[in-house]
Amino acid sequence: MPAHRVLRAALPLALAACAAACATRPPPAVPAHRDPGRCGSEPVFAAGGDRATLWVRNSPEYRAASETIYRAALEALAAGLADPAWTAEPTQSGASLALPPAVVMDVDQTVLDNSAPQAEMLLKGLCFDAFPRAWDEWLARRAAPAVPGAAAFIRAARLMSDSAGRPVRIFFITNRECAPRAGNASACPQQDDTMANLEALGLGSGTLADDLMLRGERPDWGAEKLPRRAAVAQGYRIVLNVGDDLADFLPGVRGASVAERDAARCARADYWGRQWFLLPNPMYGSWLVALGSDLDAALAAPLKVLADCPRG
Ligand SMILES: [Mg+2]
Predict the structure, then answer these.
(1) For 137-176, what is each residue's pLDDT tens digit?
(2) CATH homologous superfamily of domain 43-300?
(3) In a 3-state reduction of DSSP, which class is residue 241?
(4) I need a labelling partner for 87 at 20 to 30 A (CA). Which of 140, 239, 290, 303 fits?
(5) 9 alpha carbon to ligand 1 midpoint, in Å?
(6) Radius of gyration of the chain from Cα atoms?
(7) If you measure from the C-alpha of residue 10 to the centroid of ligand 1, how many angstroms do you get, rounded to a whole number?
(8) Count H helices, E strands: the chain?
(9) Where do the structural domains in the chain lie, given as residue ranges?
(10) Confidence of residue 45 (pLDDT cuts 50, 70, 90)
(11) What is the CA(107)–ligand 1 centre distance, in A?
C-alpha cells in the first residue's frame, strides 16, 4: 500500500486514541518563574534572567568571549611581570612594588561557573528569601565547572615568574560567605567546599587555604573587597586583577547608582584591559542591584553607559 494510503488509514485510529488520552491530560502548568503571585510583593530571585542564563549555558559566544579575555589577561600578566612599576592595585606604590608577584581573582563567574543553580532557581521560581539556603546547598555540592579559559589561565600563570625569578601566586578573593551550616562542625564549611571544588578542577595548591579569602573569614573582611586586596598588597605586588563585577576592582560601587558606578569605571579607565580584566556576567551582579526592582522602568530609561570616558 502506498505510504499516503497507510497514513490515511491510520489517522482515524490516531485521532480516536488522542481523544481518549488528550481529554484527561491536565493543562500545561505555568512555569514557576512566570507565576506573578508566587512571591507576594517580593520579586522572584533571578526574575528576567532567562536569556542571560541561556547565553552563559548554551552559547559559543560566551565561551569565546571568556577565552578571549583570559588569553589577553595572560599576555598582560607577562607584560606586567616584566615591568617593575606595574601594579593592578591603585593603592599600591613605592617599596611594595618590589614585592613578589601575585594575581587577584574573584571566584564566582570568574573561576567557577554558577549558571546551574541560576537555571534551577529560575525554573523553581525561588523567592529572594529562599536564595541563601539554595546557594549554600549549591556550594556544598562542590560541583561548579570552571569558567571557560579560567583553568588554563591559572595553570599558566602559576608557571610564570617575575624578573627576579619569583613565581606568581594566585589569591582568590570571594564573597562566598563563611556561615554555620547545620550538621557541619567546620567554622567555615564554604571554604572547605570551595577548596574541594577548585581542587577537583585541578586548581589546588599547597597554599590554597591561605590563598582563598572568603567574606567573613576575618572580622574586617566584609562584602567590600578592598581590605582583602590591601592584605594581599602588604606581601605581594598585585600584577593583575580578574573579576566579573565592578566591585571586584573598585571600592564603593556596591549600592551606588548607575551614574556613580559608571563614573568609577571611567576614573580608572586606563586599567581595563591592562591590569584589570572583567568577565561578562549578564545573570547577576551589582550592576543589576543598581537598576532597582522595577526592571521595566529600567528598560524604558534612556541608554546610560555608552558615553566614552572623558580624557583626563
Ligand atoms: Mg563574581
Answers:
(1) 999 999 999 999 999 999 999 999 999 999 999 999 999 9
(2) HAD superfamily/HAD-like (3.40.50.1000)
(3) strand
(4) 290
(5) 60
(6) 24
(7) 57
(8) 12, 5
(9) 43-300
(10) confident
(11) 6
- Give the Å distance between the CA of 13 and the centre of ligand 1: 57
Lowest mean pLDDT, pick from 31-40, 49-58, 278-287: 31-40
Beta-bridge mates of residue 177: 215
Q: Collect residues with CB below 5 Å from ion ligand 1.
A: 106, 108-109, 244
Q: Distance between CA atoms of 295 and 47, rounded to whole angstroms?
A: 9
| Chain segment 167-202, per-residue pLDDT in tens | 999 999 999 999 999 999 999 999 999 999 999 999
| Set of cell numbers at residue 81 | 611581570
Q: What is the 3-state secondary structure (H, E, C) of 43-80?
A: CECCCCCHHHHHHHHHCHHHHHHHHHHHHHHHHHHHHH
Burial 5-41 (b: 16+ CB within 10 A, else e): eeeeeeeeeeeeeeeeeeeeeeeeeeeebeeeebbee
Report the C-alpha gap between 179 and 196 in whole angstroms.
17
Which residues are 105's β-sheet partners? 172, 242
